[in-house]
Amino acid sequence: AVERTLSIIKPDAVRKNVIGAILSRFEGAGLRIAAAKMLHLSREDAGGFYAVHEARPFYGELCDFMSSGPVLILVLEGEGAIAKNRDLMGATNPKDAAAGTIRADFADSIDANAVHGSDGAETAAWEIAYFFGQREIFRAES
Ligand code: CMP
User: Fold this and answer.
1) Distance 85 CA to ligand 1 centre (A)
2) DSSP category for residue 133
3) Quick check: CB of 29 below 6 Å from ligand 1?
4) Which of 23, 40, 89, 118 has CB 3.0 to 4.6 Å from 124, enough for a Cys bridge?
């Protein structure tokens, strides 16, 4: 089925000037960019987005990192978009990420791991609504 998923190009990847290289991976895999915005998240923005991880020991550092510089937030749309995006990203820890994945090629550490992607349909819907209004998301015209 055609799905939508939320992707974030994280501050480390923006700093490295690899936004375009990462977008090309998505487009090359048949995903379309249905929405995009660049934001410098406040610590509160980041904390709310990652509220599900609030009790985890890495929560504080994660929020500090995600608010350390601008990010590019995307809605990706396409057949099986949620799983496809996760395949493209590779494992959360770049040390475990398969060769040729975004995290293997661009990430430095488990925190500075280049990209975020929704992990399921329910999460995707919640994450998309956290950042985008209906009028900011565009249906693919292919
Ligand atoms: P992301 O997909 O954005 O979701 C939560 C983030 O927390 C994750 O990527 C990592 O960057 C970060 N993180 C830091 N430590 C851990 C950990 N031990 N397990 C999972 N995620 C972690």
Assistant:
1) 16
2) -
3) no
4) 118
**Which long-range CB contacts under 8 A does 64-69 form with residues at least 24 apart?**
65/10, 65/11, 65/12, 65/111, 65/112, 66/8, 66/10, 66/11, 66/41, 67/40, 67/41, 67/42, 67/43, 68/11, 69/11, 69/14, 69/15, 69/40
**Sheet order of strands, 115-117 included:** 32-39, 71-79, 2-9, 115-117
CA of 135 to the centre of ligand 1 (A): 30
Which DSSP state fits 99?
T
Q: Which one of the listed residues 10, 68, 116, 127 is annotated catalytic?
A: 116
State the Cα–Cα distance between residues 10 and 112, nearest whole angstrom.
Answer: 7
Cβ of 86 less than 6 Å from ligand 1: no
| Nearest-CA residue for atom 4 of ligand 1 | 116
Residue of the CA atom closest to atom 2 of ligand 1: 116
Residues 86-124: tens digit of each pLDDT: 999 999 999 999 999 999 999 999 999 999 999 999 999
Q: What CA–CA distance (Å, rounded) separates 102 from 7? A: 12
- Is the pLDDT at 141 greater than 90, yes or no? no
